[in-house]
Every structure is written in C-alpha cells, then in structure tokens.
Amino acid sequence: MTCAESKRAHKAEVVGWFRYRWALILLLHTVLLSLTYYLSFLLAYDFVLPPTTVTLFARSLTIVLLVTMIFFRALGLLSGWWRYAGMSDLLDITRAAVSSSLAAFVIMAVLLHPRVPNAVIIIDSALTILVIGGARFAVRAYSEYVSRQFVTARSKRALIVGAGRAGNIILRELRQNCDLDYNPVGFIDDDHSKLGIKIDGVKVLGTTDELEQLVRTYNIERVLIAIPSAKGPVVERIIRKCRSCNVEIKIVPPARERVNDISVRQVRNVRVEDLLGREPVHLDTEHIRHSIEGKVLLVTGAAGSIGSELVRQTAAFAPRKLILFERSENDLFRLTNELAVTHRQSNFVPVVGDILDVGTLREVFSRWRPALVFHAAAYKHVPLMENNCFQAVVNNIFGTYNAALVAREFGVERFVLVSSDKAVNPTNIMGATKRGAELIILGLKQQNIRYVAVRFGNVLGSNGSVVPIFRQQIARGGPVTVTHPDAMRYFMTIPEAVQLLLQASAMAQGGEIFVLDMGAPIKIVELARNLIRLSGLTPDEDLQIVYTGLRPGEKLFEELILEGEGLKPTTHSKIRVLDGGQHSFGKVQHWLDELSRTVEARDVHGLITILKAMVPEYVASSEVRALCDVHRHDRSWRYYHRQRDFGIAAQRGA
Q1: Of the listed 241, 250, 295, 422, which one is catalytic?
Q2: Architecture of domain 152-270
Q3: pTM as predicted
Q4: pLDDT over 70, % of the chain
C-alpha cells in the first residue's frame, strides 16, 4: 500500500467523527476544563474536600466554564487542527487561561459567597495551560508518529545539509507529509556547537567534511542542501563529495528565486546558477511599489527571457494593468497560460504586435495609456546579427525609436531601455545597435519623459545564453563546444537581473545609464565543466570539450562601461549610474535618416560608416567587412546589368 493509500485508509476510519467536529471539540474542552478546575480544588485543599467546598465547586463551575469558553472562542482556540499545534497556540492558550481566570475571579467575587480561594484560581489557570496545551501537543505527536509509520520502504533515506532555519522548516514539512518521498535520517552542519544535538528528533551527525563517510554509514540515497545563503564554492564542494558517493542531490533555492517563505515544494535539482554564489538582492520594495502600484505598465518583448520575468515580478507590485506586447504569437500564448495559473488576480492584456508597426503601437498606447514602459524587445544573438545586419538595425534601432517616440506622444512617465554590456566598445552589429538605442534614449532625455537605459551582461538560461546550448550538447552525448579557452563573460540569473532592473527604474530621473553589478567574470569553459559535472559526468573523460574559435563579432572579454564614462554609486550597492553625455536629438535624427537610406539601399558599407559615426568605438568584424565586399560586388553587378539592359533597349529604339 502506498503512502497516500495508507493515509486515505486512516482518514476513512475517522471521517465520520469529523462530521461532528465542532461538538466534539466543545465537549472535549468542557470535560478537560471541568477536570482541571476540580483538580485545582483538590490540590488547594490537600485532596480533602469538605461538603461546603464541594458545593462551592458545583456553584462556580458553570461560571468558570462559560467565561473560559468565551475567551477560548475569542482567541480561535475552539477551531483549528490540533495536529498542527505550535508555540503560537501555546501562547494563545496562556492568554486565554490567565484572562479567563481573572475575569472569573471578579465575577465570582460579586456573585458568590463565600468566595473561591485565590489558590484555586491560580492553580486552575496553570493546570488549564498544561492540560489544554498538552492535549494539543499530544495529538500533534500522535499525528506525526502515524505519518512516520506511513513512510514506506521506498522513501529515500536523506541527509539534510544545514541545521539552521531552512533545514528545520524542511524537516518539519517532510515529517508532516510522507507523500514527499523523503526519510530524513540526520543533519550535517559545519557549526561544531550543533554536533550531536537533536532537532525535532533528528540528530546532527557531523560536518560536510564527513559527508562521504556518513552517506556510506547510513545508506543515504539523497542529500538535500538547505543553506540558501551558501556561496558557490561551498555548494560546489558539497556536490563534489556527493557525486563521489553516487547519491541524488537536491537544493533549497536562494532567496532571489523565492517569492514566498522556504518550502520543501521549492526544492529542486542543483543548477549551474547555484555555483555562481551571488549574494541575494536586497530591494527597496516600497520604492518599487510606489513606482508601479495602480499604474498601467507596458512590456515590449513580453514573452522573451527578460520580458516574461519582468511581467512575473511586476505583477507582484499590483499594477492596474500589464500590457504584454509581443511579436511571437506562440510564446505569448504560453506566457498568458502560465500567468492564468500563477497570477490569477492580475489584469493582463496580451497584444500581438511588432515594434516596427507604428500604427499598432499608437493604437495600444492610445487605448491603455501606459505610465511605465519596459522596452525589452530586441535581436540579441551576436553571430546571427552579423549576417543579418539590416534586420538588426531596423529592429534594435528603429524599433526603439518607434517605441520611444510613441511613448512621448502619449505622455508616458518613464521609459526604460533594457541594454547590454555588448554596447560597450562593440565589435559586432548587435552591440553597435544596442549602443545606438542608448543614444536615442539619451537624445530624448531633454523631454518631459524620464528616458533611461539599464545595462547588464549575460543572464543564465535566457534565450541567448550558452547554457541551453551546453545542455543540449550534453544530452546528445557531446562534444561540448566552447569558443576559446580564455573567453570570459559576466553572468547573473534572470530573476536577479530583473530585480535590479526594477530597482534602477524606480531610481530613474531621466537621461541615466544604469550599470548592474555583474560580479566577477566567469570563464565559459568553467561554466561548461560545471554543467557537465551537474549532469553526473566527468569533463574530458565522459564528455569532451572542443574549442571552435570565436564566432563572428565575438570578443574574449566583455566590458560594462566606456572609457571616460563617469561611473557613480547609487543608493543601492549593486547598481551604479553613469552620465551618458550630451546628445542632441537633432543629431540622432540625422543619423537615423542616414541609416534609413543605407538600409533601403541595402548598402552594408554605408551602414558601417553611419554606425561608426554614431558609435565611434565600434569596430566592424571581419565577417561584416567581408559581407560589405560581397554587397559592393553585387551592387556593381546589378549596375552593369542595368546599364547593359538600358543599352540594348536604346539600340532597339534606334
């Protein structure tokens, strides 16, 4: 019989009783309170009750029961489930017992003669706390005992790493729910003062240095890491020890991933993000809420990696409406289905639209009048954009221009551009177009709207990240391809990036470029090795790593600021701000006019020339320069054929 079936059978035995639950609880309290009151008389009179005292007991019992029941009812002690009794219940029982004893003493002093002795009242108050509280905890103890009996032989013997608050919460939940398939055998903790102590009946068996030995000694099948604040190297060391023992590894996610408190339902497999060891983000939530609550928000690229997380997180700050503007019908459909389950109370408006379609943008802005716009829509794949440079310019530059101008037309309060570290000293079209988008924002900063940009690096797990590619290669059995052994990138998680993005947007005064603290850069090859290890394999033995060379437009190192940009701290330790400089809107419009002509003419050489005028630090890649030569040859060939055709036609006319 499975755990669930056993529990259902047990419940079936008592289900009839629960139809009369209220009456049973009332009766039980009446019996227990009567017994404690009688026992208080016995103790006060040394177990010898004269007839007059028995009469006094009988006359006062009704008053005591009525007053006590009133206080118990007021504090909710006549309802609830005793099997979940805790310290809060004990405190409520203490309040009810003391308050009812005082009230009963006053009432009986007025109505009864002779008075009930003070010793009886005091003893009765203490006994009420002990007996009523003890009854509840006895039911809880029995319930937990029964739950433990339901843990079948198939439940996996588990060690919990971390005997702190998180580990304690996880243990209690595992004890209360045998369906979770855990049989907690012991704790592991590096705090030597905890060694040997018991937490809810489970002993702290040793430290992480003894993990391998403890796994073998206690036949452990699963290790659960319950240290949400653990740094990456600590997690990596624990995982390395577990892997040598061939046990399953689970982890409690860090605070940045959790909206609610710790729960065993949030426990998941270890991810590469856990090895980054980034500090939790502390937000000024009131400041963010003030900038969002009750307002209409619009997110472009709403179903993308950053856009969808923006939607999820902003929904928690109670906006009046969230407009999801997205070109991909299928991705928008999946997002709205998810939101219908996870954020039922939020008011979402999905809109299939393109930032290049000014008519649709105007229609949406006119109808919903957003106060805050997060512009996350962009082409982001660097090598792909090198071979599709016109599409990158049209989408990333002209799309931003369209959205920014329509936002100004309809009086948006704040326009936030999601930018990239690739905009700094760009060696690719994607980076140059993102820098161009920043310049558009800076050119518009003199207007009434607060135009700002937020610049950050790679986010793990996003559509443009290497992580999904590595996982696919590992699933296929390798090899795992890395561009260069020295290639390094800044990384952060999607939730963390969006949290800081929201914080930066709340700080915006207009015309700033905010730069997020990305921590230390990480070698791509080390990221690949960690992913291979997390898959239970050994790098260079089970799976080979192959170096393929840098792709078109890529560089070894990414930067977050340009030389000469004045980087300043903000009120948030992980957000800095730089002055983007003075850029007249007239100059920006001139560049856009020139870009428009080169795009229409499909002139790659002219496109590069204008981009370099806009972004002097841009260095075109060899692939784009080669594409420029191909286009020049094609244009010459088309010109020759047009001239030849014109000459043939002229001869025929003659």
Answers
A1: 422
A2: 3-Layer(aba) Sandwich (3.40)
A3: 0.65
A4: 83
